[in-house]
Structures are given as structure tokens and as C-alpha cells.
Specification:
154 residues; 51% helix
Length: 154
């Protein structure tokens, strides 16, 4: 029986049915792409005593997404990942936030409707959303001097 080697050849990187070890692929990619591949490769295979196997798998998949989005941003693109749990850990630009607002949808009279669908692609709606977001930000930023300390007026 082969001895376990958790440093040089961990099982979660060597147990792919292809027989290929993860590092043989990732060493030929840049940092972000290599890490994304690594986390996808080991998702569901690496054991963490502090987490259930499903939570560890989800964590690895979220890490892969993080590296993919970071690479998109590094290349000058923008990402419109809309899952709230992911948005909290990713750098999302203003345009992506406006796109997410345009895609906001809900049920009205039994029909699924969105801002984008109701606006028929009218670019003016983007300006209105951006304007409202700026207004909200300015309202939140408004400060009050109390006891020599600046506090947000929320």
C-alpha cells in the first residue's frame, strides 16, 4: 500500500479518474486561472474537520468563482455574478450593480416582471437607477456632529 503524502501529492489533487495530478495542469496557467482550476479540481474531495463535506465543497466552489472573477477584472472585464453570497466577497463595479438593479424581478398579478423587461431596453432607466443610487449614498453620507465625533445619519 502506498504511503500517504499530504505535502507533495495530497489525495484531493491526485484522485482524479484521469490519473493526472492537478499541479500538472495548473502550473501551466496564470495564478488566478490556476487557483480556479485547483479549487474546482478538489471540490468535494478535500476534507476539513471543521466543516461538513457539503460546506467544504461549497467553499471550494466559491473560491474558484472568486479567482475567476478576479481574473475577469484583471483583464479589464466586469462580472455580473448575482448570487448574494458571492457578491459579498467579490469586487463588483458600479455598472454591474446597475445591471443587477435592471434585472430585479418580482411577481405582479401572477406574472414574473423585471425593470429591464418593463423598460423595453430604454437607456434612460439606467440613468434613473444611477441617480437614485447616488441620492441614497449622499443621504447616507450626510453627517451630524455630535460630541466632537462625526456620525453617519442613518
Amino acid at each position: 500500500m502506498a504511503k500517504k503524502d499530504n505535502v507533495n501529492h495530497p489525495k484531493h489533487y491526485t484522485s482524479d479518474p484521469s490519473g493526472i495530478e492537478c499541479i500538472n495542469i495548473t502550473r501551466h496557467r496564470n495564478f488566478n486561472v490556476g487557483n480556479a482550476i485547483k479549487y474546482l479540481w478538489r471540490a468535494g474531495l478535500k476534507i476539513d474537520a471543521d466543516k461538513s463535506s457539503i460546506n467544504k465543497q461549497i467553499e471550494d466552489l466559491e473560491k474558484a468563482v472568486w479567482y475567476i472573477v478576479d481574473e475577469i477584472h484583471r483583464l479589464g472585464g466586469r462580472c455580473t455574478v448575482k448570487t448574494d453570497s458571492i457578491n459579498t466577497c467579490l469586487p463588483i463595479d458600479t455598472e454591474s450593480i446597475i445591471e443587477a438593479a435592471l434585472n430585479y424581478h418580482m411577481q405582479i398579478n401572477g406574472k414574473e416582471v423585471s425593470i429591464l423587461g418593463l423598460s423595453n431596453g430604454n437607456d434612460g432607466i439606467k440613468f434613473n437607477i444611477e441617480d437614485h443610487l447616488k441620492s441614497i449614498l449622499l443621504d447616507l453620507y450626510h453627517t451630524i456632529e455630535t460630541d466632537g465625533q462625526t456620525k453617519l445619519n442613518m
